[in-house]
Amino acid sequence: MRDEDERPRRLTRAETKARTRALLLEAAAQVFARKGFAGASVDDIAESAGFSTGALYSNFASKDELFVELLSKRSGSRLAEAAEIVSDRSGSVEDEQALLSRLLVDVAGEDMDLAPLQAEFWLYAIRRPEFQERMAAQFRANRDALSTVLADRAKERGQSGDVPFDGVATVVMALFQGLVQLRRMDPELVPENLYGDAVHWLFSGLSAAHRAKD
Amino acid sequence: MRDEDERPRRLTRAETKARTRALLLEAAAQVFARKGFAGASVDDIAESAGFSTGALYSNFASKDELFVELLSKRSGSRLAEAAEIVSDRSGSVEDEQALLSRLLVDVAGEDMDLAPLQAEFWLYAIRRPEFQERMAAQFRANRDALSTVLADRAKERGQSGDVPFDGVATVVMALFQGLVQLRRMDPELVPENLYGDAVHWLFSGLSAAHRAKD
DNA sequence: GTCTATAAGACGATAGAC
DNA sequence: GTCTATCGTCTTATAGAC
């Protein structure tokens, strides 16, 4: 039971285990994204992380638990950035469009695993009623954050009213997801600035519809 | 070798085979939608169609071929309806919104297999470069059809110009996909008329942006 | 806490009877 | 043209060495 190393350990036992867990989760994200939930084997994941299946099962009860853990951690990583962009009133409208478009291009092009992983999460959730509500709650939280930002911005600009911010936030997020998927299929289908343009059209159409009611 | 039925056969041999193929494809669509491509077994599919695996393999070379066949047949089944709605100038703008929203509600709610199947197609395609282009071409064909309809409508209304109809069509389709997925996750996230509203906002914002440039 | 080895079963696909 | 039976492989998860 004694440790062979007498000098102070750099990593405690709990820390090395946490590190193993983190490495396994990272590898799992990649393998699940590349082969899908059913298509990925636990051997793939463990080996890709540099461990054995035994090590994996000492950290996670099952393949499902590993996947669900991922779903919990990797929820609104990128959406926070979008909310930040929209809430930042220092830039011009053109800057905002450019930044939103850039975000979409990044998600579709650079973080190659995110979009397929999100699709796997969605499929997993709609097939298991017990997780459907959990994922819906996650989305609602994200939407509420964006919705609040939109409402604040509208108030600052003196646009009073009955604008359905929740609906607009939902549309902005759904469009993002849809365009990311299309751009992953063929980048030429979704030009660099299409998302920014679309959000711009949406907002100006929205404020027009709102003004008309005054 | 003789048929036990002496009266003229209702189905020729080729017809029964075609019928078997059709039944297998139908069952495959359901099982793939419910369990995913990797998660579905050929036994599941054959049994669900009322045949054995041997019968399946006498009609399809492999599980992959069966899936790809599905992908080819079930492409733009619903998009044609959307194009029809947009191209139909007999109704009011309100009718158009209502019809588009209804279409989304139908796809998300009634044809329960379509959305997950589409997601499986997308995942399958982005993981296999050789099919990615085929699916992209399918999307482009659908987009072009919608784009043409939009351009015609704009011309009729005397809106000249530099409107990027391809981009608008892409946005309308991406938004549809995104909202369908959200509504499948939780119907309350996507109210009945959100899609129609969003398309309306989009178009009025678009024509505003266009007028501004004149 | 992580490894090797293995259990128990499901998988895709094939061969041969009918 | 479809069925039954089976091959070889890969799967998730566990047990015991270290």
Brief digest:
Two copies of one chain form a homodimer. With 214 residues, chain A is mostly helical.
Describe this structure in words.
The structure is a homodimer of 214-residue chains. With 214 residues, the first copy, chain A, is an all-alpha fold. The first copy, chain A, folds into 2 domains: 13-70, Arc Repressor Mutant, subunit A (Orthogonal Bundle); 74-213, Tetracycline Repressor, domain 2 (Orthogonal Bundle). In chain A, 74% of the residues lie in helices and 0% in strands. Chain A has helices at residues 13-35, 42-49, 53-59, 63-73, 79-87, 93-109, 114-127, 129-156, 165-185, 194-213. In chain A, α5 (79-87) packs antiparallel against α6 (93-109) and α6 crosses α9 (165-185). The longest helix of chain A is centred in the middle third of the chain and has 28 residues, at 129-156. The first copy, chain A, is elongated, with a radius of gyration of 22 Å. The N and C termini of chain A lie far apart (77 Å). In chain A, 38% of the residues are buried. Mean pLDDT of chain A is 90; it is low at 1-6. Chains A and B meet through α7, α8, α9 and α10 of A and α7, α8, α9 and α10 of B. The structure holds a DNA duplex (18 and 18 nucleotides).
Protein topology:
Two copies of one chain form a homodimer.
Chain A: H1 13-35, H2 42-49, H3 53-59, H4 63-73, H5 79-87, H6 93-109, H7 114-127, H8 129-156, H9 165-185, H10 194-213
The first copy, chain A, binds a DNA duplex (18 and 18 nucleotides) through residues 13, 16-17, 20, 41-43, 51-55, 57-59, 62-63.
